[in-house]
Amino acid sequence: MRYSVDENGYYGQFGGAYIPEMLYPNVEELRENYLAIMNDSEFKSEFHKLLKDYVGRPTPLYYASRLSEHYGAKIYLKREDLCHTGAHKVNNTIGQIILAQKLGKKKIIAETGAGQHGVATATVCALMGMECIVYMGEIDMARQRPNVERMKILGAEVIPAKSGSKTLKDATNEAMRHWISHPVDTHYIIGSVVGPHPYPDMVARFQSVISDEMRKQLNEAEGTEFPHYVLACVGGGSNAAGAFYHYLDEEKVKLVAVEAAGKGVDSGESAATSYLGKPGVLHGSKTLLMQTEDGQVVEPYSISAGLDYPGIGPIHAHLFDTGRVKFENATDEEAMKAGVELSKLEGIIPAIESAHALAALKKLQFNSSDIVVVNLSGRGDKDLETYIKWGQY
Amino acid sequence: METTTINRINQLFQNKKDVLSVYYTAGFPKLDNTLEIAQNLEKAGADIIEIGMPFSDPVADGPTIQESNKIALDNGMTIKLLFDQIKNIRESVSIPIILMGYINPVIQFGIENFCKSCEEVGVDGLILPDLPMAEYMAVYKEKFEAHGLKNVFLITPQTSESRIKEIDNNTDGFIYMVSNASTTGAKGDFSEEQLVYFDRIKQMSLGNPTLIGFGISNNSTYSQACEYSSGAIIGSAFIKFLGSEGTSEDSIKKFVKDIKG
Question: Do the Cβ atoms of B105 and A296 come within 8 Å?
Answer without folding.
Answer: yes
